[in-house]
Amino acid sequence: MSNDLGFEADTRRGRRVIAAAGEGRRLLKPRAFADASGIQLRTVYREIAEGRIPHVRVGPRGIYIPASYLDDLTAKAAEAVAA
Q1: Which end of the chain is least crowded, N or C, by CB within 10 Å?
Q2: Mean pLDDT (the chain, rounded)
Q3: What is this structure's pTM?
Q4: CA 17, 20, 23: angle at the middle one, nearest 5?
C-alpha cells in the first residue's frame, strides 16, 4: 500500500514496517513530533485529523509524520523570528 507522500507500508508476516521509497526519509511518531516541535500531543492529533499535518497511516493505530515536515516547520518559524 503506498500513498501520496512517497512512503510504502509493508505488512508482510503480520509485522507493520514503514519502508521509505527513497533514502533519507525519516518518519516520526506523533509523540516524537510533539516533543521536537514543542506542540502539545493532543494538538498534533487534532491537526492530523483535520488534515493540516501530513502523515502516513499504517493500520488503524499507526500514524507517522515525515521528519521533513518538522524541518520545514522549524525553518518557517526561524524565518518568522528573524523577520
Answers
A1: C
A2: 80
A3: 0.71
A4: 140
